[in-house]
Specification:
mainly alpha
Length: 272
């Protein structure tokens, strides 16, 4: 008898595969070149936009230090110590603004390169992946600008308050501090996205994350001690608090991913 009742699992597997999964090594290199070119073009256009926006952004960058200086009864001025100092700041700030503007496109290009090697049910998260990455990064920068940076500046300026030495703050050194705090927190806030990727590939599970929380807490403490630009415990705790919250958000994300993977496996088993 002809086996007409048997499901065609081979055709189902082929339908679930992406053509990119069967690309040759040379074709992957060509695709990688295309993704890199698109990313660099996006960054270049973002830098052009950032160059015209920098003069407005500088006011927001120097506002926290000016407020901290005023709070300590000091002149709220920031200086540049070399003739090319301000121009260098302008160019650097234009680059970072352009990088932020281009980040959604860059992340999309990264996903387009990786996605062909995955199954369709794993690629459905592309939109949420990009949006959540940008959202978390912006949350990290916002937290750093509104909460952590004022604490850091107040501590550093007030440390010498009342003494004979007065601060003469260089705009370039100040920008490096702001960049370290804001970008560092933006990257740290990507922790749930990292856990999501590791969960998709089966590297971590919610049970694994909960079982090893004490080691994660130790790592969070070490990272906070290294990254926090001041030695006081209060700032370090402020830095650690969102990291702990993000870790448990990552546990929840991992639970959702693992649950969906099991549900998909059950459906595929029933289809066969």
């Amino acid at each position: 008898m002809p086996e007409t009742d048997q499901p065609d699992t081979t055709s189902n597997q082929r339908a679930d595969e992406e053509p990119g999964a069967r690309m040759s090594f040379f074709e992957h290199l060509v695709d990688l070149r295309k993704r890199l070119v698109n990313s660099f073009l996006a960054i270049g256009i973002g830098m052009l936009i950032g160059f015209f926006a920098t003069k407005y952004v500088i006011n927001y960058v120097v506002t926290p230090v000016r407020l901290a200086l005023r709070a300590n009864g000091l002149e709220d001025s920031v200086y540049y110590s070399s003739l090319q100092g301000y121009i260098g700041l302008y160019i650097n700030l234009s680059f970072y603004i352009g990088l932020v503007i281009a980040m959604p496109i860059v992340l999309h290009q990264v996903w387009l390169f990786v996605a062909p090697g995955l199954y369709k049910h794993e690629r459905r998260a592309v939109t949420s992946f990009i949006l959540s990455s940008m959202f978390l990064f912006v949350c990290g920068v916002t937290f750093g600008y509104t909460v952590l940076l004022p604490k850091v500046l107040t501590f550093l300026i007030a440390f010498a308050k009342g003494g004979p030495i007065k601060p003469l703050i260089s705009i370039n050194e100040y920008f490096e501090l702001v960049l370290a705090v804001l970008v560092g927190l933006g990257v740290i806030f990507e922790l749930p996205v990292l856990i999501f990727i590791l969960s998709v590939f089966g590297i971590v599970t919610p049970k694994f994350l909960l079982r090893n929380f004490r080691y994660a807490m130790l790592l969070i403490t070490i990272v906070a001690a290294i990254v926090t630009p001041t030695p006081d415990a209060t700032t370090m705790l402020i830095f650690m608090a969102p990291m702990v919250v993000l870790y448990f958000v990552g546990v929840l994300v991992s639970y959702i991913v693992v649950r969906r993977k099991k549900a998909n496996a059950v459906r595929q088993g029933e289809a066969r």
